[in-house]
Amino acid sequence: MLKLNDPSLLKSQCYVDGAWIGAGIDAVDNPATGEVLAKVPRFGADETTLAVEAASRAFKPWAKKSAKERSLILRKWFDLIMANQEDIAQIMTAEQGKPLAEARGEVAYAASFVEFYAEEAKRIYGETIPSPFPNSRIIVQKQPVGVCAAITPWNFPAAMITRKCAPGLAAGCTFVVKPAPDTPLTALALVELAERAGFPAGVLNLVTGDAVAIGKVMTTHPAVRFVGFTGSTPVGKLLMQQAASTVKKVGLELGGNAPFIVFDDADLDAAVQGAIIAKYRNMGQTCVCTNRLFVQDGIHDEFVAKFAGEVARMKVGNGVEIGVVQGPLINERAVEKVERHVADAVANGAKVVVGGHRHALGRTFFEPTVLSGVTTRMLVTNEETFGPVAPVYRFTTEDEVVQMANDTPFGLAAYFYSKDLGRAFRVAEELEYGMVGINSAILGTEVAPFGGVKESGLGREGSLHGMDEFVEIKYMLVGGLGV
Ligand SMILES: NC(=O)C1=CN([C@@H]2O[C@H](COP(=O)(O)OP(=O)(O)OC[C@H]3O[C@@H](n4cnc5c(N)ncnc54)[C@H](OP(=O)(O)O)[C@@H]3O)[C@@H](O)[C@H]2O)C=CC1
Ligand SMILES: O=C(O)CCCC(=O)O
């Protein structure tokens, strides 16, 4: 059972127009134990329409508040999230599976977006442009887009919500959020803290339930002006199509197929540590986790031996246990996908260096795995595995590896290790990705623009640029001034 300092953070109702509503129907379970943690409502089109209407009524008064007033409420939300960091982390590990240390880190990461955009709320500046017409002025003003919808995944149950909502709320938008069915409890705890922080009724609403029905309302209701989604590319494409019917803005953070390249001249130990982080964070279940490791001939065997040695030492178990660095995968479907990818690679000639099977703990646990001798004919090359499997490819030249790295419809994150400064700029500029880690395996921070190119998505989250999605630019030409 979950033991929280503040048990009232564990909610099992949805939040619409400032009220907690709905009966608990859909079970949320702990992927490590199978224990049912709570049941949440199964809402559909009708309740989502009510939530959109509430957000629509709340929009004008919220947008008319001064930037400083909105900023202060966001700041209070940040303070409350950090004051309850431990409870939210416990809820997150229980429903999502990531080790407690990672969950605490995600809560702080989630809060950082709220803090950052509380500050940015006061800096949504306009422009004045020298007018080509006599006696006139040109003024450009930024205004909030209106009601926004956010559909979020289970792998980052807190950060994907705040990374979308904080800039929008700061700009004066209102929200309807649909969290993933595996992880609604973290989201509900955040909303409970938002209520305590003082967001007026209707400004932030959350519904759980039938994804297709909820998504349909979010993408077709004329009052919704922006739809933000993080998840798989096929669902992102569907939402984009649906949103076209009323020409909504869309922000999409979709799948990745991140390359991690180690050149002969790399710092070997740093590259091994980087590969561990880039591959096994959240059990390989992040869109920026590396899906393909390319290692140059001269350093290949040494890298594989050191890397596999580290991976073999990883402790697997329930994320609340001390020393555990690899928890369960989100569900058995995810384990089956990982098994399919490993079996396909082995059938086509790859060698299992370490791992390769379901873990002795059973059900949702999979052994952290390293495969060598991987070729581009295998499933792991073309599909996001989203699990703890590191396929290692051998390469010879820089041109060859850049071509292999770019040979995918995806373009979210890429990483490479090299001490050659010329190569660093050359390769970074050639990689067709929205984000590139150079001798670094961590990219996410509230101060930098997170997002992809090609089929990995549209728009950016975080940083100054993350605000662009939530504002419309209005140009005013003021004539007849006589000056
Ligand atoms: N970019 C990323 O961070 C993520 C990528 N993925 C990738 O996707 C694969 C599958 O994972 P999965 O969880 O099924 O991802 P999905 O894209 O199916 O789910 C993400 C979110 O979208 C919702 N959703 C699904 N279909 C619709 C719809 N028609 N309308 C509105 N919302 C919808 C889901 O709700 P519901 O579950 O109720 O359908 C969930 O909240 C993973 O293996 C991974 O490769 C997954 C998660 C995050
Ligand atoms: O997997 C995702 O969609 C979010 C990545 C988390 C991050 O590093 O910001």
TrEMBL record:
GO terms for molecular function: succinate-semialdehyde dehydrogenase (NAD+) activity. InterPro entries: Ald_DH/histidinol_DH, Ald_DH_C, Ald_DH_CS_CYS, Ald_DH_CS_GLU, Ald_DH_N, Aldehyde_DH_dom, Aldehyde_DH_Superfamily, Succ_semiAld_DH. Residues 28-475 form the Aldehyde dehydrogenase domain. GO terms for cellular component: cytosol. It comes from the Bacteria. The active site is at 253. Coiled coil: none annotated. This is NAD-dependent succinate-semialdehyde dehydrogenase. One of its GO terms (biological process) is gamma-aminobutyric acid catabolic process. Belongs to the aldehyde dehydrogenase family. Keywords: Oxidoreductase.
